[in-house]
Design a protein that fits this description.
Distance between the termini: 52 Å
Number of strands: 0
Largest sheet: none
Order of helices and strands: HHHHHHHHHHH
Strand content: under 5%
Radius of gyration: 20 Å
Oligomer: single chain
Helix content: over 70%
Shape: elongated
Structural class: mainly alpha
Length: 215
């Protein structure tokens, strides 16, 4: 059976796996973005705190994904839970690091001007600092998403959702007629999803970053 014949015969399952893969990555990136930005906001004003947040999330990233998921299974069980926890943790580093760098890079003169017109600390953060730090934060989100696209495939090891199931089935049946087709369909699906997500971030950047900041 050729690759395209295989895709035609299995298109319903492949579409389901693709949707689950995209959904898992998207939801975990939302969690990682919220947590990462909050960590950045909480630590960027203090040198040691920002460095500690960056170092801690970097340490998490050094743990092999298969090992982390394996450690989570006895605690939270199989399926979605270990997938969500692992992907969220792996997605933190680029967001935290870029949030800290972006917030520290805001021109102090702009912050002083905001103080001068009576803005509170919270108002300065929400209306001045975070909008100016958004471009590097968005870059961190893009990097995290590309990483998670590949890492999410490992979730199939713990009965997680996504295209990793297709890859693992192919690896488990090496030598069979459709083993290569299974691995190839899962891999290409992940590549296509990664490109689509990145294109969506480009559009998001054009919609949310003012021309003056982009310039």
């Amino acid at each position: 059976m050729s690759f395209w014949e295989y895709v035609g015969n299995r298109h319903a399952q492949l579409l389901t796996d693709t949707f689950q893969h995209a959904s898992a990555v998207f939801q975990c990136m939302v969690l990682a973005t919220v947590l990462g930005v909050l960590l950045g906001v909480a630590t960027y004003r203090t040198e040691w705190a920002g460095n500690l947040a960056t170092a801690t999330t970097a340490t998490i990233l050094t743990v092999p994904s298969l090992a982390l998921i394996g450690l989570l299974v006895p605690i939270v069980g199989l399926g979605v839970a270990p997938t969500v926890i692992a992907l969220t943790l792996y997605g933190l580093l680029p967001v935290v690091r870029n949030a800290v760098v972006g917030l520290r890079g805001v021109d102090p003169a702009l912050i002083d001007a905001a103080k001068g017109i009576g803005m509170s600390r919270t108002a300065r953060l929400l209306r001045v600092e975070l909008p100016l730090a958004w471009p590097p934060i968005l870059t961190g989100i893009r990097v995290s998403t590309q990483m998670l696209m590949g890492i999410a495939a490992i979730a199939a090891y713990a009965s997680g959702p996504g295209l990793g199931n297709e890859i693992f089935r192919g690896i488990a049946s090496l030598g069979s007629a459709n083993a290569l087709n299974q691995v190839l369909s899962g891999t290409l699906g992940i590549v296509v999803l990664a490109l689509l997500f990145d294109a969506a971030y480009v559009v998001l950047g054009r919609l949310t970053i003012s021309r003056g900041i982009r310039a």
